[in-house]
Write a structure and sequence with these properties.
heterodimer; A: about 450 residues; Rossmann fold; Neuraminidase; 8-stranded mixed sheet; globular; B: about 190 residues; alpha+beta; 60s Ribosomal Protein L30, Chain: A; 2 domains; 4-stranded mixed sheet; 7 helices
Chain lengths: ~450, ~190
């Protein structure tokens, strides 16, 4: 039996033991042959749409193979529909239009003619079986025209977080069908005041802010700090197992690294100065940050353990908001050296701060640069547009700037998804300050948080 | 809510404490004249006679409390009614203007009276800047205050700077007035 280990990245629920195996059904040999010796080249794995249009996918409810699996089955099919829709690679046929299609109880019963009439190019069939605290999820993706199975897998593991099975299926289908690294299993981290707790200490009227993590879609929001203090500017380690942030628990902000699945907390800056906005280098070995340790806000780089601190900027203005280029050789940052209250974005070499140059020349105010992952070669930032802010993107190859938000509230703090197709950001458009995601083309706005005020999002790999 | 004309500080405190009790009896709440005696005893330590200061004398800088009582109080108590006043900044500026310098120099006088005090200078910003830049701007404001205080003779190792950006507005309103109050350097005594 062919089994591989499922990578369960970044789940607190510890679903790590889930195993994947190819479905031992009639199509197994076919799938295996295509994956291996390619003996049946007539089978087309990638499902296309009509005339170059995006293929139309249907995700009917998965079948509960045991009575207590009904809720998990519903959750998995709905989340799978959401996940596949999020990347906008496929057209997802709305689930409330499936009533004309008879439900299949087995893969042999899938009514391809009825799905074809609904306009589906691709349809899933899945079952969910629950045994105590574990579930087994079997899923197939059919090409409706050829009635062939193009994807068939089985997953088993804990029943605690059914959404993770849907996320895994979505990522694997995106990889197989579109060679795309989906984001369904990625996570966000952000700052929230939702507990409305008052800060301990002598100053009245200050609210605690803690660091949270959640799934990319806002599900499973959890607090990872319990300091009853101010904690801000979180960012993920590249392996998505640690969050670095600034905490004011000892009055002056220090950079802490929380290994969130081990419950280990490391203080990287060790009480020296005030330290803000830690960001991991792409290889995870270094952290860039802002510090006042030499008497003025400047950009520094240190090893992850806090050793070998090197100063990269030296200017009486304020330098902050560092972000690494995808290869780690450059850092973009914000400086107000052309005028207080008028920050602009600059680039420099990450090794020594050399090759300094200004990036934004047509903005009155530009802050919080975030360098996109490859293959995109662009920097998103918060741009002053009138009284407030909007998200803009500067394409490095062409110098072209495109605007992502258009003054629906104030929009700040962009953070790229690991595949570069999406941005998380904060907006005041829905009351308070909330986190949203949007496509890098400005389409597909989704609200992620709703409780309290939520700011400073960062997106895991 | 309470007429301040000719009322001494201690009495004003008592009247403020009594106001909610008065309001409970009559609705809608009306501003009542301060009741002389039968209100509950003030929960705070009564100010000694030496601390009886006219209200209008409190408007300028001078610390209102006698030095002895200040020296004997806990850090939290001192900070809640701090003799160190916040310095405010113009829009888009990290430079102290004349009124800011005057506030800071009066704070310097206090720190010279209490040479054992260590302070944290917090830089704050209004909500109109972005969260990240405001962390740098708040730090620059705190640094500007520290630099000025060093020039007036306070040892640098008695002061730490920290920026809160726009995370802790003093006034939550979204008005020019609120914003001008939120652009500030706030002083917290952290050791004595």
């Amino acid at each position: 039996m062919h089994t591989t280990r499922l990578r369960m990245r970044g789940t607190i629920l510890a679903v790590v033991t889930a195993a994947v195996s190819l479905w031992p059904g009639p199509d197994w040999a076919t799938i295996h042959a295509i994956g291996g010796q390619n003996q049946q080249p007539e089978i087309e794995l990638v499902i296309g749409g009509d005339g170059g249009a995006p293929p139309r996918y249907a995700v009917p409810d998965f079948i509960a193979a045991s009575p207590d699996a009904a809720e998990a089955a519903r959750t998995i099919s709905q989340v799978l529909w959401d996940d596949l829709g999020f990347e906008r690679e496929f057209y997802l046929i709305p689930r409330d239009t499936y009533s004309s299609v008879p439900a299949a109880r087995s893969p042999e019963q899938v009514p391809f003619a009825a799905w074809r009439e609904l306009g589906a190019d691709a349809v899933f069939f899945g079952t969910v079986e629950r045994t105590g605290d574990t579930v087994r999820v079997q899923v197939r993706l059919f090409n409706v025209r050829t009635r062939q199975t193009v994807f068939a897998k089985e997953y088993s593991g804990t029943a605690a977080n059914p959404r993770l099975y849907a996320h895994t299926i979505a990522d694997e289908v995106h990889l197989q069908q579109r060679a795309l690294r989906g984001v369904a299993r990625t996570k966000l981290t952000f700052v929230s005041d939702r507990n409305r707790e008052r800060l301990l200490g002598p100053v009245d009227n200050r609210e605690v802010k803690e660091i949270y993590i959640s799934d990319y879609d806002g599900a499973n929001q959890r607090r990872i700090t319990t300091t009853r203090q101010l904690n801000i500017t979180p960012s993920w380690s590249p392996d998505a197992r640690a969050v670095a942030y600034s905490s004011y628990r000892n009055i002056t902000p220090q950079i802490f690294i929380s290994l969130i699945y081990q419950g280990v907390l490391e203080n990287a800056t060790k009480g020296i100065g005030s330290n803000y906005m830690p960001v991991f280098s792409p290889d995870g070995t270094k952290i860039a940050f802002m510090s006042n340790r030499d008497g003025n806000p400047e950009i520094y780089v240190m090893n992850r353990d806090g050793s070998d601190v090197r100063r990269l900027t030296n200017h009486p203005a304020g330098d902050g908001s560092p972000t690494w280029s995808p290869t780690g050789t450059q850092i973009a940052f914000t400086s107000d050296r052309t005028g207080t209250g008028r920050p602009q974005i600059y680039l420099m070499n990450s090794a020594d701060g050399s090759n300094l140059r200004r990036l934004t020349t047509s903005e009155s105010y530009a802050d919080r640069p975030t360098w996109s992952p490859a293959p995109f070669n662009e920097i998103a930032y918060s741009a002053g547009t009138g009284a407030w802010y909007d998200i803009k993107v500067h394409e490095l190859a062409t110098g072209m700037v495109r605007q992502i938000t258009f003054s629906e509230g104030s929009n700040e703090g962009p953070a790229y998804s690991p595949n570069g197709k999406h941005l998380a950001f904060t907006s005041t458009r829905a009351g308070g300050t909330q986190i949203f995601t949007i496509g890098r083309d400005g389409r597909g706005l989704t609200q992620v948080t709703r409780s309290g005020n939520n700011t400073m999002p960062a997106w895991s790999q | 809510m309470v007429s301040r004309r000719g009322v001494i500080v201690a009495l004003a405190v008592v009247a403020l404490m009594a106001a909610p009790a008065c309001a409970r009896r009559s609705s809608p709440p009306l501003p009542l004249p301060p009741q002389p005696a039968p209100v509950a005893p003030p929960p705070v330590t009564p100010a000694p006679p030496a601390a009886r200061v006219q209200v209008e004398d409190l408007q300028p800088a001078a610390p209102a409390l006698a030095e002895d009582s200040l020296g004997n109080r806990s850090l939290d108590e001192i900070n809640r009614d701090s003799p160190l006043r916040p310095a405010f900044f113009p829009l888009d500026s990290a430079d102290l203007d004349e009124s800011g310098r005057s506030v800071v120099s009066s704070n310097v006088e206090v720190l010279k009276k209490y040479p054992q005090w260590v302070v944290t200078i917090e830089g704050h910003c209004d909500e109109r800047g972005t969260a990240e830049y405001n962390l740098a701007l708040g730090e620059r404001r705190a640094v500007a205050v520290k630099t000025y205080m060093v020039s007036l003779g306070i040892a640098p190792d008695r002061m730490r700077t920290v920026s809160y950006g726009k995370e802790f507005p003093f006034d939550q309103a979204h008005t020019d007035e609120a914003w001008s109050r939120n652009r500030r350097a706030h002083f917290v005594i952290t050791a004595k």
